[in-house]
Each structure stands twice: as C-alpha cells, then as structure tokens.
Amino acid sequence: MIVEMAERGEPIDMVLFADPGSEKAGTYAFLPIFRAWMAHRGIPSEICRYHPRNFKHWPPYATIAENMLTNATLPSVVFNRGSCSQKWKASAQDAWTADWEPARRCWDAGNRVVKLIGYDASARDTQRYHHALGCEDPRYAYRYPLREWGWDRARCERRIAAAGLPVPPKSSCFFCGSIKPDEVEELSADELRIIVLMEARAKPRLRNVDGLWRRPVLGRRGATPRPGSITEFIRERGLLPPEEIDRIIARAPTELLAFQAAQAALPADARTPMGRWLDDFNRGADALRHKKAHDLANAMSTP
Length: 303
Fold this sequence. Notes:
single chain, 303 residues, mainly alpha, 2 domains, two-stranded parallel ribbon, 4 strands
C-alpha cells in the first residue's frame, strides 16, 4: 500500500509501526530497511509501543509475550477474541496520534484524521474489512487503498519486489494462534522455547483448547495436518530436542511462579522485570545445550 501510494504521489503524513515486542525476527529485520526506503522518499515514520503501568503484585513486563506468561494465559485470538491487537497495537497508535500536532490541529478544526488500512482484496482480509465497517470513530475516517485497487496479497508481494525491496513475512507475534506450520519451522530456538513455556504455563487453566492452535487439524479438504498444541508440533518436527521440551514443561512454569512470588514480596520499584527472567531462561537453556554437545564430543573422542 505504502509503496504504491508513494509511486502515485499520494501524500502520507506519517507511518506508524506498533511494536508489541514479540514480532517475528523477519519483521524486525525488515523494519529498518523499509524505514530507510520511506525516509529517502520523504515519508516520515515512527515506532510506538504500549507501555504497561499497573503491575499490581507482578514483576514488570514490557512485551505481549511477557504479559501472557505473567497472567498464565494465551493470546486472545486463541479464544476467538482480538483484544491483544487492540491493547498492544491500536491503543499504542491512538496514544501516539493523540500527541501528534497535525492530528490535534485537524481535530480542533472539526475534521477527522484519515487512517490508511492495509486490508487487501483477498477473502480473509475481506472478512476483516466487513467487520471493521461497523467500527465508527469520531476522530478518524478510514480508507482501504488496496481494496480500492482490487489487490490481493500476491499482487502486493509482486509490487514490493518490483520496488527492489525484500518481501517481508506476514507480520504477527511469533506465538500467534494464527501462525502457520511453515512459519513455526522458521523460528529461533529462543522463540520456540517461549512457545513451549507459554503453553505449559497456561495448560492448567485451559478448558476448551489444547494450546495456541486450539484444536487439531486433521488435514481434510487440503488443510495441513497439525496438533492443537504448537509444543507438540515442535516435538513432532524435532525443532527442539525432546529432553529440552520435557525439561521446560516439568520445571520452567514452577520456576517462573517462584520468581513471581519473590517479586511480589518486593516494593514495586525494586522488582526485577519479567524480561530479565526470560533472558536468564534462554541463557540457561543454551548453556545446557552446549554442555550436552561438549560432553558428547568428549565421550566420542575417548578411546
């Protein structure tokens, strides 16, 4: 949408990227490339974030993954709701725009800021578009250029490539319930471990879903078979060693609960952030993996 509008000379006053802190690595890699492309064409851009403030008795968290682990739950999309996008993306953009001087001048003049939405003309985005039609906001008017042009996702990808840009992955959190099996296979070990931990942490509270993918897909009508739990997919495909998966499930949720309990006993300004615990969690897993590889190498070299 942005590439084509720039080519057509249509003005764009600001591009916002709402960062929930848990996007796929490919999205973060593409971000500086595209921001540089826009800056070269005089299109300003900003990164905005939702900043949680009320942590009650929890350690502070800064990303949506840390939020899920803190509350022992899964993203709202798993339960057929969309509140995670509203909280971590829409509200962050709205808060940023509320302090943006051009928007304030527009509102003071009794007008509405025009939001450009990148829904394309494919069947899935058409569903999103029809749902959005019922959302009215006195501050904003909404425009859907890709739908005006009749472009589907394949057409968008061709346009991005024609501009000399790498085609980025579909933006989503790396643990989103809508992630596809081939996308899971591209995740890093750190991301895969957090998925295993997230499902294990939430499991005691789950009633009607197996995990981030809700229920198994049997593979009928051309669908790709997969379990309801991404952890089981990770195990089936050998994306993490089985002993590492078992260790995370058996120990990490209990260790996380102990960390939370220790932080709850401290004054709010003295608590260790959840992100620090996750860094230690992944460093510990890496250290154990390297130790195992070292021990195996030594065993093989022993006569």
